[in-house]
Amino acid sequence: MHGQTLCVTKRKPCMQQPKVNFYILSTRSEQGRQLFACKLAEKAFRLGFKTYILTHSMQQAQQMDKLLWTFRASSFVPHEIFQDSLPSIANTVIIGTQQAPAPWQHTLINLSTECPEHISQTVQIFELLDNDETQKQAGRLRYRHYQTLGITPNTHNM
Predict the structure, then answer these.
(1) Per-residue pLDDT tens for 105-120?
(2) Domain 19-157 belongs to what topology?
């Protein structure tokens, strides 16, 4: 990630549309997307944002849980898998397969193939795609969905 900018926005919650950033990674690996999600989550945590990582399955949530402990030796990102109760530490990163709880909607990192629902309180959404054609096709559908909501997503080729 040397020389690459991760766009993380600080904005007061209001009725504005969220800022949506699509990151298209040059790899074709799920682990590459997950490592990038860890870096985004780390940056959001350091900025004090309440962050939710939306996964497509509990297995992927468990992979993210493990990876957040090990992705960088010098890093510490408090996190947990969301099980219907909120974390006790204010900006713990939470990971799950369901709708982000209302207090944790500032930053949403989407690893699932679906569009997140109920995003009116979300400030920023990060959509992570790799060079896999299936991932890109699902990403194109999400991109169009955001456009129908009046959102103009930003695209970053990494």
Answers:
(1) 899 999 998 998 888 8
(2) Rossmann fold (3.40.50)
